Amino acid sequence: MSSVAVLTQESFAEHRSGLVPQQIKVATLNSEEESDPPTYKDAFPPLPEKAACLESAQEPAGAWSNKIRPIKASVITQVFHVPLEERKYKDMNQFGEGEQAKICLEIMQRTGAHLELSLAKDQGLSIMVSGKLDAVMKARKDIVARLQTQASATVPIPKEHHRFVIGKNGEKLQDLELKTATKIQIPRPDDPSNQIKITGTKEGIEKARHEVLLISAEQDKRAVERLEVEKAFHPFIAGPYNRLVGEIMQETGTRINIPPPSVNRTEIVFTGEKEQLAQAVARIKKIYEEKKKKTTTIAVEVKKSQHKYVIGPKGNSLQEILERTGVSVEIPPSDSISETVILRGEPEKLGQALTEVYAKANSFTVSSVSAPSWLHRFIIGKKGQNLAKITQQMPKVHIEFTEGEDKITLEGPTEDVNVAQEQIEGMVKDLINRMDYVEINIDHKFHRHLIGKSGANINRIKDQYKVSVRIPPDSEKSNLIRIEGDPQGVQQAKRELLELASRMENERTKDLIIEQRFHRTIIGQKGERIREIRDKFPEVIINFPDPAQKSEIVQLRGPKNEVEKCTKYMQKMVADLVENSYSISVPIFKQFHKNIIGKGGANIKKIREESNTKIDLPAENSNSETIVITGKRANCEAARSRILSIQKDLANIAEVEVSIPAKLHNSLIGTKGRLIRSIMEECGGVHIHFPVEGSGSDTVVIRGPSSDVEKAKKQLLHLAEEKQTKSFTVDIRAKPEYHKFLIGKGGGKIRKVRDSTGARIIFPGLLLTLCSGKGTPLRETLSKVIEHFVITDSSFLVHPACSQHSDLHSRAPQRLGVDFLCHDLRK
């Protein structure tokens, strides 16, 4: 039972002093400036025995404070409270997690202040901010803006006063925003509006509004008067819902600024014409004096968690009590641990007000239901369906689930809470009887595979067994998986998940190197061949690289034994592809292609089937005579022999082999095959076949009509002999700066040497390489180029090496066949 005590005005004033929120300061001493630390008595002298009214208390307080030796405070700590209804993030799962924790971390990093958060019994948020004054103020402003729901209000003041609110370089506005933790928007100079918008918490808006009005009052050309009125009597002067002060302002035309409850100031500021202002002051004084004489106070204990019900939404409950009973109810600040509520009014009205306070306090209740945390989601239901049934019937009941706690908290009107509690207890009992859960340990590295692509695996298990499966996020690195639901479904889901994990533990990944040219063949048309492989090894996942990547790595993943079997199978397939990819080209005279194809393709079909090769013939309208055979090497050779024999039977086709050194083959073929092609055309279109480059074979095969074959043979041998006898290479050392003398103007000299000797001359660097000609005449030609030095005075030379029109430089090569190179020996 709460105790009721009747207090005198003096003892109540003393009691109130303990309810004012104090700012905690942590002081540090500067050892250089303060040689001796102050004693306890010096720093904290005894308090005065009795607190008088504010006016009289100012002088002793000042005297007391003057005795304190100066201590430089480097760190301050402020504690403030965010009520549940003003919390931006009410649906926290676990304290310290989620968006709220991220925001706090960001604020600490940005401002340098230290934050500590705790959750009060009423689910409000207590925040302790420590650090340097500037850091604390900035952090507090950020916390209010980001963790507390925001409201807004407008304050009209004369346009010409706006600049005083802003201050020099905006300093006053910034300071005001920091102190009140609000955002203050002032219209631009070109905007005719006189409305200043304030955004923040209700308490912050009240403080900011009060300060803005004070600044405006100071600048007002009309009379300004300040009246000291004890804070406790402000509600009587304002009246219920501020109606009384509003009436006085309207009747006298005077602006009256009463500090809001959150601002610890006692003076009321009046602004207006002198005569009307005096009337307003007189009326306020009269109300103040009457209330001081007629009112008394009582203090009662009300649970801290019930204070918000006494206050009501936006303080409406306090205003209702004041309106009906004329009694002011003072509630201690939310960051105070005090549970004492003070009622001030006329004695005969205090009883009725006290009854209403208790009625408001008990009109709402907080209760809890014991329920295992794993059942919470089933109580809530899919998309909150189960819970919605309760809240629709009792919308004023707030139901809160806290993760990790085996309870559900209900808050709201007492009668509604009792009904909701009964329903939830019934749901819990029913769920406990028919639900079960199990926890299994599976290495977290397999979790994403258990979940599957876009959750396919885990969703299938959930739907199939009608269970809920909770897999921790990757960031937690936890192995614990929880399965909840019907007992039978839980066991079945557990068995399947453990089997999947066991399979994955035995899983291996292997990379096969397969030439990209074979990838399409292995996949097959429309994926037919790869589908056959996957059907043969269903537990193995085969991934081919994207063709654009130009990668040769094919990845196999699955159970170790199956991966090994699949690897061997695919390696054999690739070996067969390599073996069957041998290709040879057979030149066949165009007029015989139709005979090789046969009637209705009979001949070529038979050769393909019997040799097991792929044979491609050129299109009929193509000039090409080459038939391409692909397959195993031996099969390709057999197919070629059969095609050549058909040609041989149809015409007088002869075939001879000529031995020519392999080093001469390229020179006989010529650039892009021009030389050998001219011989084949000249000799009636015979086919001349050179061995594959690098094989080391000297054998060249000539095939065609007998007379043409002999003619081609003679030409080929003659050309080979000529190439062999005339091919000579020699290296001559010549400095690069002299190459231009050998080349001559426009390449005239070197061209003359090439034409007369038939040699090819290359100028790579220091070495001059001579090839494709006989060495002796070439050497003799080059040896005729000599060099001679003549020393002459530079004054006789008009820089001939630099002048394009110099007589010496331009005419000497034409008349004398010489070149001049001038050097300045003075350098």
* Major beta sheet, strand line-up: 1-12-14-13
Total beta strand runs = 32
Report, as a whole number of angstroms, the end-to-end distance: 116 Å
Number of helices: 33
C-alpha Rg, in Å?
52 Å
Which CATH class of the domain at 155-169 and 185-294?
Alpha Beta
Strand content: 15-25%
Described by the principal axes of the CA atoms, the overall outline is elongated
Q: What is the helix fraction of residues, given as a range?
A: 40-55%
CATH architectural label of the domain at 155-169 and 185-294: 2-Layer Sandwich
CATH homology group of the domain at 155-169 and 185-294? K Homology domain, type 1
Uncertain stretches: 1-73, 92-96, 798-816
Mean pLDDT: 77
Function: Appears to play a role in cell sterol metabolism. It may function to protect cells from over-accumulation of cholesterol.
Protein name: Vigilin
Main location: cytoplasm
Domain K Homology: 149-217, 221-289, 294-362, 363-429, 434-502, 506-575, 580-648, 652-721, 726-790
Describe the overall structure:
By secondary structure, the protein is an alpha+beta fold. Among the domains are: 155-169 and 185-294, Ribosomal Protein S8, Chain: A, domain 1; 296-330 and 339-363, 2-Layer Sandwich (Ribosomal Protein S8, Chain: A, domain 1); 371-434, Ribosomal Protein S8, Chain: A, domain 1, CATH 3.30.1370; 437-505, Ribosomal Protein S8, Chain: A, domain 1 (2-Layer Sandwich), CATH 3.30.1370; 507-579, K Homology domain, type 1 (Ribosomal Protein S8, Chain: A, domain 1); 652-726, 2-Layer Sandwich (Ribosomal Protein S8, Chain: A, domain 1), CATH 3.30.1370; 730-816, Ribosomal Protein S8, Chain: A, domain 1. 44% of the residues lie in helices and 20% in strands. The protein has 33 helices and 32 strands. The protein has a 4-stranded antiparallel beta sheet. The protein has a 4-stranded antiparallel beta sheet with strand order 2-3-5-4, covered by helices on one side. Strands 6-8-7 form a 3-stranded antiparallel beta sheet, with helices on one face. Helix 4 runs antiparallel to helix 5 (133-147), helix 7 (171-180) runs antiparallel to helix 8 (202-219) and helix 19 runs antiparallel to helix 20 (487-505). The chain is elongated, with a radius of gyration of 52 Å. It starts with a strand and ends in an 11-residue tail after the last helix. The model is unreliable at 1-73, 92-96 and 798-816 (pLDDT under 50). InterPro entries: KH_dom, KH_dom_type_1, KH_dom_type_1_sf, KH_Vigilin_N. It holds the Pfam family KH_1. One of its GO terms (cellular component) is nucleus. It is found in: Cytoplasm; Nucleus. Residues 149-217, 221-289, 294-362, 363-429, 434-502, 506-575, 580-648, 652-721, 726-790 form the K Homology domain.
